[in-house]
Amino acid sequence: MQLKRSIWLWLLLFLAGGVVHVPAWAEEKQPSEGKVAVVNGAVITRVDLDRQMGFLQQRLRRWGMLLNESQLSNMKKKALEDLVDLELLYQESKNKGIQVDEASLDERIKALKKRFPKEGEYRDLLRKMNLSEDSMKFQIRREMATQQLVDEEIAQKVTVSDKEIREYYDGNANFFKEPEQVRASHILIKVDPNAGESKKAEARKKIEKIEEKLKAGADFSGLAKEFSECPSSVRGGDLGYFARGQMVRAFEEAAFASKPGQVSGIVETRFGYHLIKVEDKKPQSMIPFEVVRDRLEEYLTQEKIQKQLTSYIEGLKKKAKIERFLIENGK
Length: 331
What we know:
Layout: H1 5-12, H2 17-20, E1 35-39, E2 42-45, H3 46-62, H4 69-95, H5 102-114, H6 121-128, H7 133-153, H8 162-171, E3 177-178, E4 181-190, H9 197-215, H10 220-227, E5 238-243, H11 249-257, E6 267-269, E7 272-282, E8 285-286, H12 289-319, E9 322-324
Antiparallel strand pairs: 1-2, 1-9, 3-8, 4-5, 4-7, 6-7
Helix pairs in contact: 1-7, 3-4, 4-7, 8-12
């Protein structure tokens, strides 16, 4: 399987962040003309930094992460370095004479606009990002040029041998273990955790009567469809396969202690009373190498690209004149 390098690099470099995310710091009211860095004469402004910070903060919010003041300060410094790196890569693309295909550029812009089907949404995005149509086109052009540079200079030259893939698989066996699993069906008679003793006794009698029917030879699936108060009743109580840690403890212990075809005794959990039938068991196993080979090739390729890209950027920095002017909170 061929790695879609350009797509991965687009994500790696946060290139999409500059064109589809609205700044989260709009209320900060920093002067738009303020410069935070100069890279070989090219100015990176406070607006550029705010835009990058907005993208990063949006990602963190999606992951449910909140940062304290110190962490936010460190993230701002990292965001500035990302912008410095991107500027260096763009300048190098110009030095190497990389030309962006106009048809591809137009297609990229059309694809972006399609993400905003309602009238005026795209213009609203540009206004919030303080960008004109022309400046947006310029942003996308430079991002495509940067992407093309990294593809040509690094990604297309990276290879991973079959030996490397196999060695990674053999050396990281724990990553590819499938845990022991049980496939079970159950019959549930619900009991509210706050129910009184009389309600609990009533539910217990119901499950005991069902247990008697099973002992008399009744079909488990049929009884589950008729009496179980779990949504799985429509499937005859079938819960599918599950590993340890996926069910409440008492239920899990009873299921893993039973043999295929065996029905447990009555099991009490916070949901109520259960009868559990184990349908099948799968012992712990290894995911076959053939199943994960392509994904491992992609992972190892990306890992090499990351390392080489970091080294490539460091080489550009050594030859560059970079000035940073990031001042926070007036300090």
